[in-house]
């Protein structure tokens, strides 16, 4: 992990700056826990925001998809990109509507992506993408063949410019509202896995591996 | 609910068009279940993607925030916007890395937002925002006073141009891969609430209302 600062003028949080985090470790922990990012790019003057999976590997974020995807073609052309990852941790139930809020951890990354074309980098990048979603799976899965490698575009976004924003804890109400009789507090929220559903064509008796039956996100 | 079509040239799904949905009912159901949207806008040629809460009311999507927020100021100026809501439903564990996927439901909305300034519309919009996160809360909460109303910017985005994209079901593997011995299937994922945490300054014995203790998203 490099120690280059992630904070720049453009990634300095202006609204509620106390919630900002710029240390790589804090930013990377959020990226590693998230499953989906939202990729923002501009095409014909119109912003588009597309959800997709991703993986962090060292100081690089990988995105992937079909070579036909407008998002990947736009980004390959060197268009500026914004990638945002948001973890929702709870509903903050305040006494007033005005102070009602959410607990969350989010990361905003700015930059320009570069196509990964060298197979020596492309295969490990695909491994990182599989491992990000299901840690442990890369060792079991049937790995990409040359045709599949060609049918997958991978982009690398260097983690040079980013910030995190984090809200934790209970409601902060106006002093005079604390006397009001209604309940206030937090409803914690979490993305939780339930019992794995085996594929219909799975051979009878094939048991799910531990990384599936005990699936959980890193925290 | 109007019957105007949401599908336009710009919101026609090109990649995996079988996954596309354009009916208002399908789109609205996803919007009503989601908690957070990702708002894309352009400032100085750079796209930004910011997570925030929202509410659908009829054929309008409301966004809110501080009048000082760059996002709200940019959108108030008539900048084109993209609002995306994504629900992650599961990890699709295929036999091959190439066919590994996710089950999801997402909505992409394009348009231009308009500031809501009439107090007759602003207060119900704030009610919709509270009710979207915690159905039932608006009747109990201390409602916004004139100062708080002034300190809140609300934007309305008319739902004129949108599409949904939905993936469900198990992995679709290459025919020859079905003989491979590894487990395949789906790990369902869901955003789940856990036990509400009462605020430290809550009067002893104040019980959470049912909309908190039995909190769940509409489905």
Question: Key terms for this structure?
Answer:
homodimer; 219 residues; Pnp Oxidase, Chain A; 37% strand; alpha+beta; 6-stranded antiparallel barrel; 10 strands
Helix/strand class of chain A: alpha+beta
CATH topology of chain A: Pnp Oxidase, Chain A
Largest sheet of chain A: 6 strands, antiparallel, barrel
Count of DSSP-assigned helices of chain A:
5
Helix amount of chain A: 10-25%
Using the coordinates above, name the CATH class of chain A.
Mainly Beta
Quick take:
The structure is a homodimer of 219-residue chains. With 219 residues, chain A is of the alpha+beta class.
Structure description:
The structure is a homodimer of 219-residue chains. By secondary structure, chain A is of the alpha+beta class. Chain A has one domain (17-172, 184-213): Pnp Oxidase, Chain A. Helix content of chain A is 19%, strand content 37%. Chain A contains five helices and ten strands, in the order βαβββαββααββββα. Chain A has helices at residues 24-33, 70-76, 119-133, 146-150, 210-213; strands at residues 20-21, 36-43, 46-57, 60-65, 80-93, 101-115, 153-158, 161-167, 185-193, 197-198. In chain A, strands 2-3-4-7-6-5 form a six-stranded antiparallel β-barrel. In chain A, β5 (80-93) and β6 (101-115) form a beta hairpin. The longest helix of chain A is centred in the middle third of the chain and has 15 residues, at 119-133. The radius of gyration of chain A is 20 Å and the shape is globular. The mean pLDDT of chain A is 95. At the A-B interface, β2, β3, β5, β6 and α3 of A face β2, β3, β5, β6 and α3 of B.
């Amino acid at each position: 992990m490099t120690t280059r600062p992630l904070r720049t003028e453009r990634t300095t949080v202006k609204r509620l700056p106390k919630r900002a985090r710029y240390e790589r470790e804090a930013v990377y922990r959020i990226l590693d826990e998230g499953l989906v990012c939202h990729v923002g790019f501009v095409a014909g003057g119109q912003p588009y925001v597309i959800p997709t999976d991703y993986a962090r590997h060292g100081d690089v974020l990988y995105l992937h998809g079909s070579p036909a995807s407008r998002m990947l073609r736009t980004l390959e052309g060197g268009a500026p990109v914004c990638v945002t990852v948001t973890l929702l941790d709870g509903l903050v139930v305040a006494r007033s509507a005005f102070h009602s809020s959410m607990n969350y951890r989010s990361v905003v990354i700015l930059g320009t992506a570069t196509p990964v074309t060298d197979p020596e980098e492309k295969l490990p990048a695909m491994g990182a993408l599989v491992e990000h979603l299901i840690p442990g799976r890369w060792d079991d899965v049937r790995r990409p063949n040359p045709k599949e490698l060609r049918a997958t575009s991978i982009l690398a976004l260097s983690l040079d410019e980013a910030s995190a924003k984090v809200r934790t804890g209970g409601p902060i109400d106006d002093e005079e509202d604390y006397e009001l009789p209604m309940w206030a507090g937090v409803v914690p929220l979490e993305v939780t896995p339930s019992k794995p559903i085996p594929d219909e064509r799975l051979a009878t008796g094939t048991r799910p591996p531990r990384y599936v039956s005990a699936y959980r996100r890193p925290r």
